[in-house]
């Protein structure tokens, strides 16, 4: 029973408002960073919530894995806005995952 509840709570439904909010924040971030940005999901979360009084609103991604799922949902919106999104890993022993946004 516990396991089922945990799995249900881990599956975050991505709302349309959240997609629009995060996509607009990523576009604003790209404007501030001259059209490109590279970093981890944790760094992305910090970058797009920088300067906000309430950084963690209800439904906001709290972990890097949830942030990745939300970014996956935002990709079509970003591509329509002319943003290229790439995911990758570093080649060192840590194999850190990263995301890259480039505005065309």
Short description:
With 104 residues, the chain is α+β, with helices and mostly antiparallel strands.
Strand and helix order: HHEHHEE
Radius of gyration: 15 Å
The proportion of residues in beta strands is 15-25%
Assign the CATH topology: Aspartate Aminotransferase, domain 1
Shape: globular
CATH class (first level) name: Alpha Beta
| Widest β-sheet, arrangement of strands | 1-3-2
Largest sheet: 3 strands, antiparallel
Report the mean per-residue pLDDT as an integer: 85
Helix content: 40-55%
Structural class given helices, strands, pairing?
alpha+beta
Low-pLDDT stretches: 6-10
Topology summary:
Layout: H1 2-10, H2 16-32, E1 36-39, H3 41-49, H4 64-80, E2 83-89, E3 97-103
Antiparallel strand pairs: 1-3, 2-3
Structure characterization notes:
The chain has 104 residues and is of the alpha+beta class. It has one domain (16-103): Aspartate Aminotransferase, domain 1 (Alpha-Beta Complex), CATH 3.90.1150. It is 50% helix and 17% strand. It contains four helices and three strands. It has helices spanning 2-10, 16-32, 41-49, 64-80; strands at residues 36-39, 83-89, 97-103. It has a three-stranded antiparallel sheet. It is globular.
Name a few traits of the molecule.
104 residues; alpha+beta; Aspartate Aminotransferase, domain 1; three-stranded antiparallel sheet; globular
């Amino acid at each position: 029973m516990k396991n089922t509840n945990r799995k249900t709570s881990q599956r975050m439904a991505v709302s349309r408002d959240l997609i629009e909010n995060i996509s607009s924040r990523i576009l604003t971030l790209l404007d501030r960073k001259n059209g490109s940005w590279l970093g981890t999901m944790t760094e992305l979360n910090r970058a797009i919530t920088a300067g906000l009084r309430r950084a963690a609103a209800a439904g906001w991604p709290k972990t890097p894995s949830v942030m990745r799922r939300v970014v996956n949902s935002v990709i079509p919106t970003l591509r329509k806005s002319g943003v290229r999104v790439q995911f990758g890993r570093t080649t060192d022993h840590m194999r850190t995952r990263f995301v890259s946004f480039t505005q065309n």
